[in-house]
């Protein structure tokens, strides 16, 4: 994922959520709807999340230092994980609490047209934001399904914005259901039910985001297709005859570490081996542009001797 593409989707979501949050809080003040309060907190939390993603992207661009020789690319993963925590605590848990309180102490809605009008506006704004996230994701996900894209994406921003926008749209529909049912029946319990459903939705999305960003924080290898490209680029059949073993690790969304022990000709001179390593590194970088940190160790391949057959008793 390009940094610019991710930033465009984040900024679109940030603008939409700030405008929606203001409208929801105004609707809550006039109507007393707990669904609107929960949705207002949700939008405010989402706005904070997008600010965190932008901050993480900025911090990740810092140059490598002696203390952090591989750079700060993983800052984006850390801030992505913080987003899942904020979404769970501020968005999900608060909505669950507010829904419980509204069911326990229901009251009729006042000025029902405020929450209905704000929800319709919010659905339109979130749809536009979601459309931008889908458009940006389609440019990088290739033939992957949406679930595969969320699981395999090395840049956390687009999957996070996608899931947040999806959660926001579904949450708005749930809020509209709760408010509509409360208006139709005159029973404020339905407003609380809608709020509880929003809380469950946000908790589920937060758990999915936490699981995915945790995997990135622990360190993920290159995608299978990229690993195959690296293997094909390493072995030229002449100076490099085979790969003895290889490891890859994402130092950040767009920076890949490649470490491999490669087999060279046993009678090559030191100068020949050095030239072979330089050429192999160049082939890797040409094949996979994100492979920026490469360590190759030359060796002579020694096949493991076959195990001696055991005598039968």
UniProtKB/TrEMBL annotation:
Cited Pfam families: Cation_efflux (PF01545)
Membrane-crossing segments per the record: 9-30, 77-97, 112-134, 161-183, 189-211
UniProt domain Cation efflux protein transmembrane: residue ranges: 10-218
Domain of life, source organism: Bacteria
Keywords for the protein's UniProt record, in alphabetical order: Membrane, Transmembrane, Transmembrane helix, Transport
SUPFAM superfamilies, per database record: Cation efflux protein cytoplasmic domain-like (SSF160240), Cation efflux protein transmembrane domain-like (SSF161111)
Subcellular location: Membrane
Main subcellular location: membrane
Membrane topology, from the record: Multi-pass membrane protein
PANTHER family found in the cross-reference section: HUEL-CATION TRANSPORTER (PTHR13414), PROTON-COUPLED ZINC ANTIPORTER SLC30A9, MITOCHONDRIAL (PTHR13414:SF9)
Protein name listed in UniProt: Transporter
Organism encoding this protein: Streptomyces daqingensis
Organism phylogeny: Bacteria, Bacillati, Actinomycetota, Actinomycetes, Kitasatosporales
């Amino acid at each position: 994922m390009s940094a610019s593409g991710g930033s465009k989707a984040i900024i679109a979501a940030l603008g939409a959520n700030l405008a929606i949050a203001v409208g929801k809080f105004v609707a809550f003040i006039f109507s007393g709807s707990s669904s609107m309060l929960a949705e207002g907190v949700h939008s405010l939390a989402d706005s904070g999340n997008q600010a965190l993603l932008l901050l993480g992207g900025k911090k990740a661009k810092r140059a490598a230092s002696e203390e952090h020789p591989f750079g700060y690319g993983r800052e984006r993963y850390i801030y992505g994980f913080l987003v899942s925590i904020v979404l769970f605590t501020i968005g999900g848990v608060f909505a669950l609490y507010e829904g419980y309180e509204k069911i326990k102490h229901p009251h009729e809605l006042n000025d029902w047209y405020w929450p209905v009008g704000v929800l319709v506006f919010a659905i339109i704004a979130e749809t536009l934001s979601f459309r931008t996230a889908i458009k940006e994701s389609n440019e990088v996900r290739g033939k992957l399904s949406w679930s595969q894209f969320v699981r395999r994406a090395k840049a956390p921003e687009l999957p996070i914005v996608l899931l947040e926008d999806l959660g926001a749209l579904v949450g708005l529909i749930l809020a509209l259901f709760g408010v509509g049912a409360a208006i139709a029946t005159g029973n404020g319990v339905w407003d609380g039910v809608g709020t509880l459903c929003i809380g469950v939705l946000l908790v589920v999305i937060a758990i999915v985001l936490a699981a995915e960003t945790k995997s990135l924080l622990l360190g993920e290898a290159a995608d299978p297709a990229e690993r195959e490209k690296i293997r094909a680029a390493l072995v030229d059949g002449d100076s490099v005859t085979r790969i003895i073993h290889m490891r890859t690790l994402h130092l950040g969304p767009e920076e890949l570490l490649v470490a491999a022990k490669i087999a060279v000709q046993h009678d090559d001179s030191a100068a020949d081996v050095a030239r072979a390593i330089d050429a192999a590194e160049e082939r890797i970088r040409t094949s996979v542009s994100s492979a920026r940190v490469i360590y190759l160790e030359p060796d002579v391949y020694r096949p493991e001797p076959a195990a001696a057959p055991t005598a039968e008793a």
